[in-house]
Write a structure and sequence with these properties.
about 20% strand; single chain; eight-stranded parallel beta sheet; alpha/beta; about 350 residues; three-stranded antiparallel beta sheet
């Protein structure tokens, strides 16, 4: 089997409102869809969701890179995913979301070729994954109202609350949220690099008091030594997670060597897709670190791939693949992939991703 053509199309779903985190505000949710065609009639879907703050890519630069990668991959074997990554890495460094689009499409083809859902192709057996939903930064009152909506209307029982701009306001919002949703709802927080070591240490006892499970990326992405210091000095039950610091298996090995985190947040757009995500999960498992799979402003093509990785790896025990809920109508309009009942996501028992898009 050989790759014969690649089609690329822009995908836009309107956000209900701007989504704010500590490092910036997202006004739109543009991503790219690709379809990889083969000489045996099998096609694979993939998606790229670049985020300049994290992946160093814009929507426009991502398109340019995907065009170059398309030319390089024409004529190659779509089932040799390791070779495809080596080729893409030889074309350009980084650009994780552009490479991710092709990675997902190749796994979709492989699943269809073998008659297996991607999660089974990766070694998974249970299609059900418990997922959280994210509350962005806003006024404490609005954050409380959004948390109540997520729990009472959408049925989620795990919240991920964005913090990182101001400790006192963060704690005010979290206190309101905890009082509103009760003690049975799990809460984790994400500072998106917004705190210092000392601010983080001041926050931890208060986060523990509020029943927060885990705190994600307190410090700038490059500060592995600071993350290791936080781990050494953390005397609370709040587990510490690295996200923006972990782009690939090399970063994961560095963090593990320094004992810099209890959790790694794997994002397919950072690591170039399922191939790199599985490598990070392997490093974590060997090091006694647990993982979560998170997302950018992604559509259901890449979210289905991310959820499939959660279902396939024992070291991945949490999921934050909720970006479709940020769109108008709490959905991106793409059918298939998985179904949702509250925070329980069930992958479809169909070959590949289980998504059929005609473009």
């Amino acid at each position: 089997m050989r790759i014969t053509d690649v089609r690329i199309e822009k995908f836009t779903a309107p956000l209900k409102q701007p989504f704010r985190v500590a490092y910036g505000t997202m006004e739109t949710a543009d991503s790219w869809l690709i379809k990889v065609m083969t000489d045996e009639g099998l096609c694979g879907l993939g998606s790229a969701a670049p985020l300049p703050f994290v992946t160093g890519e814009t929507v426009d630069t991502c398109l340019l890179v995907m065009r170059d990668l398309s030319k390089a991959l024409i004529g190659t074997d779509p089932l040799d995913i390791e070779a495809a990554h080596a080729l893409m890495d030889s074309v350009i460094h980084g650009n994780g979301s552009a490479k991710c689009a092709f990675d997902i499409a190749l796994y979709d083809i492989a699943g269809k070729q073998q008659g297996l859902p991607v999660y089974k192709l990766l070694g998974g057996t249970d299609p059900v994954v418990a997922n959280d939903i994210t509350v962005g930064i806003d006024t404490p009152e609005r954050m409380q109202a959004e948390a109540e909506r997520c729990v009472n209307e959408l049925g989620f029982d795990i919240l991920k609350v964005k913090i990182g701009l101001d400790l006192e306001r963060d704690l005010d919002a979290l206190g309101r949220i905890r009082n509103a949703v009760g003690d049975d709802v799990r809460i984790r927080v994400d500072a998106n690099q917004g705190y210092t070591v000392e601010t983080a240490l001041r926050s931890l006892p208060e986060l523990e008091r509020l029943g927060v499970d885990a705190a994600e990326q307190f410090l700038p992405w490059w500060d592995f030594d600071g993350a290791a210091e936080l781990m050494r000095r953390n005397a609370t039950s709040v587990r510490l997670m690295l996200d923006e610091s972990i782009h690939d298996a090399h970063d994961a090995r560095r963090a593990a060597r320094l004992a810099a985190a209890d959790f790694f947040n794997i994002k397919l757009m950072k690591c170039g897709g399922l191939f790199g995500g599985a490598q990070i999960a392997d490093v974590a498992e060997a090091s006694g670190v647990r993982c979560m799979v998170g997302c950018m402003m992604e559509n259901k093509v890449s979210l289905t791939a991310g959820i499939s990785l959660v279902a396939a790896r024992g070291s991945i025990v949490e999921a934050d693949c909720d970006s479709f809920t940020f769109f108008v109508g709490d959905d991106d309009g793409i059918a298939g992939g998985f179904t949702r009942e509250g925070g329980s996501f069930r992958l479809l028992d169909e070959p590949g991703l289980g998504i059929d898009l005609d473009f």
